[in-house]
Amino acid sequence: MSKAYVIAQATVTDPGQYEGYKALAGAAVAKYGGKYIVRGGATHLLEGDWAPPRLVILEFESVEQAKRFYDSPEYRAAREQRRGAATMNMLVVEGL
Asked: Which of 19, 34, 37, 96 has the highest count of CB atoms within 10 angstroms of its CB?
């Protein structure tokens, strides 16, 4: 079974409220066996014009486990906390 990576691009509009989201999201990530690989570090453009304001990468044991995390009551609460504080693009991709 391949590892899976959740990649999220966030545009934060309310940093204070977003801190609450980060706390709830972090607890949900841990509960569902995920781990942070990247959490908002500096980016350096190598090619093209992609400039995400905030990038997060999570690792899970499988796509199914990543989906369990995303659909969990814990992460639903985190997403509700995030409402109005950030816009998010997120996907899961199979890894090696």
From this structure: 34
Give the C-alpha distances (Å, rounded to integers) separating 53 from 2, 10, 33, 35: 29, 7, 26, 21
Question: How far is it, in rounded angstroms, from Cα 89 to Cα 96?
Answer: 23
pTM higher than the cut 0.85: yes
What's the angle, vertex CA 95, arms to CA 67 and CA 50, rounded to 5? Answer: 90
Show the domains of the chain with their CATH numbers: 4-94 (3.30.70.100)
What are the per-10-residue average pLDDT scores of the chain (96 residues)? 94 97 98 97 95 96 98 98 97 95
Helix (H, G, I), strand (E, B) or coil at 78: helix
Strands (E), 1-96: 4-12, 35-39, 54-60, 86-94
